[in-house]
Amino acid sequence: MGLLSSTVLAFAGTVVLALALRPVAVRLRITDKPGGRKQHVGEIALVGGIAMFIGILVAAMTAVQTRADGLCWSPPRSSSLWVSSTTLTVLGCRHALRYRPVPRSS
Predict the structure, then answer these.
(1) Number of domains composing the chain
(2) Domain annotation covers residue 39
(3) Are 75 and 65 within 8 A, CB to CB?
(4) pLDDT in tens, 61-95
């Protein structure tokens, strides 16, 4: 799979996952609500980072390029890149779950 097709796969996977995860985020109240300094309209699902991480991960795992002699090779997978991006994704998820608003009873 070439660079263009890997890029398209990452983008398409990210879009599909973001749309698929939105109802789950709303049900679990992993959303950002307007108020105070936040001027957006409606609830915004906080699943974009997860969708991007998985989309890029899938594209990187399927990326295979053909060399001039016909042999295929996979691009090197940098463990430091994956460790740091996984850490950021996990911390982002933890933050989104920890600081979600608690409904108040009236």
Answers:
(1) 1
(2) yes
(3) yes
(4) 777 665 666 666 555 566 777 788 889 889 888 88
